[in-house]
Amino acid sequence: xxxxxxxxxxxxxxxxxxxxxxxxxxxxxxxxxxxxxxxxxxxxxxxxxxxxxxxxxxxxxxxxxxxxxxxxxxxxxxxxxxxxxxxxxxxxxxxxxxxxxxxxxxxxxxxxxxxxxxxxxxxxxxxxxxxxxxxxxxxxxxxxxxxxxxxxxxxxxxxxxxxxxxxxxxxxxxxxxxxxxxxxxxxxxxxxxxxxxxxxxxxxxxxxxxxxxxxxxxxxxxxxxxxxxxxxxxxxxxxxxxxxxxxxxxxxxxxxxxxxxxxxxxxxxxxxxxxxxxxxxxxxxxxxxxxxxxxxxxxxxxxxxxxxxxxxxxxxxxxx
Length: 320
Prior knowledge:
Mean pLDDT: 93
Structural class: alpha/beta
Helix content: 40-55%
CATH topology of the largest domain: Rossmann fold
Number of strands: 5
Shape: elongated
Low-confidence stretches: none
Distance between the termini: 60 Å
């Protein structure tokens, strides 16, 4: 491929907000990474292809380590590419955990490289509801209860609401990263096409369509899970059983649920037993006013038990 020295190198940073099509954009970039590379655009490497975001960038910034970032921009330095894409909503959600010294290192590594922010917004009420649902299903440390408040409380937290106020949030991230340009768009627009235009892709570039990623979970499931999770002192085992069960009952494109369902199959048998027992105890103890919610809770418990039994049978040695 021809060298790109005649084009000023740049980084396109997509820092969030979460729940604004971030997973779809990341999946589109990862799916089309070969076609992008042919146009001089590199989608930085990922650690988890099933969830192809650049979480390593956030982890490095929190530690004050930009070694990997420096390696990822090598194609810009040696002329193999003119654009590098970095995408991770954790840049925004973890912003208060990243020290100023780490941002200074970020800016130093990108000296001589233009940085452009790409951010997608959406309506405040829908976004808050979606983010709250995501917060409920996110991992909880071992031994800890669910700490996510009810929606009415969650929706009033200033630091949360600030993320969807794109202009001031873009100002903040631009100061941290040294970004000199920004493109702000909306979820209800064709933001993938806008992103392709930002990358400078020709209209006839052979790009595959964006896949549907990280589908939202049904409201009834969220309501049931929240009630059960608030009842237990430790969420981890209950979450393990509930997510495995709902994935079997109602398969969705939700990455979090799919990943935990796979984890249920991999953990030791005693952890599965504990998870199923925790779920059954919670279902027996929690009263549901809504009959549909009560039925769903019972189905979750019975399906988790059935999955455990199937896995136990599969683990038995074959008869001689």
